[in-house]
Amino acid sequence: MEPNRDFGGENRPTSYHYGRKKKRGGFLILWALIFSLIGGAVGSVVTYKYMPKPAVSEGLKPQVEPPADKTRKHEAGVVESVAQYAMPSVVGITTSTTKNTLMGPMAVQGSGSGFILSEDGFILSNAHVVGAKGNKVKVLLNDQSEAEGKVVWSDETMDLGLVKIEKKGLTPLPMGDSDSINIGETAVAIGNPLGLDFQRSVTSGVISGLNRNIGEVQGNYMDGLIQTDASINAGNSGGPLLNSEGQVIGINTVKISSAEGLGFSIPINTAKPIVEQVMKTGDFKSVALGMSGYTVSAVERSGYDLGTGGKGVIVGGVEAESPAAQAGLKVNDIILKMGDTDIQSMSQLRRELYKYKAGDTVDVVVARNGKKETLKLTFTDYQVPAVGQEEGLRRLIPGLNN
Question: Which UniProt keywords apply (predicted)?
Answer without folding.
Answer: Hydrolase, Membrane, Protease, Transmembrane, Transmembrane helix
